């Protein structure tokens, strides 16, 4: 038996979330907002916490600085039931901090900085991520997965270990890659999960099905396009389906896609059909948006099952 159900690899950071920012100054240098909070974040962190809450034996491979931000992340991961034995602590860089401006409708904008482009090589830690049933990359096109060589080495090792591979995506920031740059690696991915903006950017298409076809054309086995308030669209070589959004009032969309991926992957590992897993993952994403922060609202699997019966049918 594998030690973990799910291992997540990717960025770990602190989100400084500012909600209800008023751009009109109240003084020469002062502005007001409705609220401000510090929350741990990063795709790998958000996914791993959600997966652990859903009952998965979950670990994370990420790099943290030897600083208070790194301490905060490590403690929250452990408190959430995520195994942190594979976390790399280093004095070579500071833990990234992202400033998030969240609007009243839950949409947001983020500000990154140089600490987000640190030099982390997960391919040097193969034993840390292959002892799991599934591997979740969060996210392609962002550090550490903005280097084709690193991506291919990690995915090859995962496939050799018999892992199911889930890969989220992000729009490029410091280093720009295209699908063509990753053509040798994309065929190793079982499920890819871009949001609509990302899928449009990488595919050059406007329609979700046409977007999915581009990813499938590069060899990805299954494509899930997250459509926000419209739900999500799935397509592979055999079927396609649109899963409508659940009935919710969004407060903060931060981490919704990460919770969706965690829910979908956990249900696939439970033996659910793709449709059942999509409905479950979609509900996890919806629940996430009902509170500020990526890891606040989701509590456990039972909560999601009840939510589906009440709000998603």
Briefly, what is this?
33% of the residues lie in helices and 23% in strands.
- The portion of residues assigned to helices is 25-40%
Shape by Cα distribution: globular
CATH superfamily: Ribokinase
Instruction: Give the H and E element order.
Output: EEEHEEHEEEHEHEHEHHEEEHHH
| Poorly predicted sequence stretches spanning 5 or more consecutive residues | none
Our count of domains comes out at 1
Q: Please report the first level of CATH classification, the CATH class.
A: Alpha Beta
Kindly provide the radius of gyration, computed on alpha-carbon positions and rounded to a whole number of angstroms. Answer: 18 Å
In spatial order, strands of the major sheet run 4-1-9-10-11-12-13-14
CATH topology: UDP-N-acetylmuramoyl-L-alanine:D-glutamate ligase
Named at the architecture level, the CATH assignment is 3-Layer(aba) Sandwich
Q: Strand count, sense and closure of the main sheet? A: 8 strands, mixed
Query: Strand-residue fraction?
Result: 15-25%
Distance between the termini: 36 Å
SS element count, helices: 10
Number of strands: 14
Helical/strand content category: alpha/beta
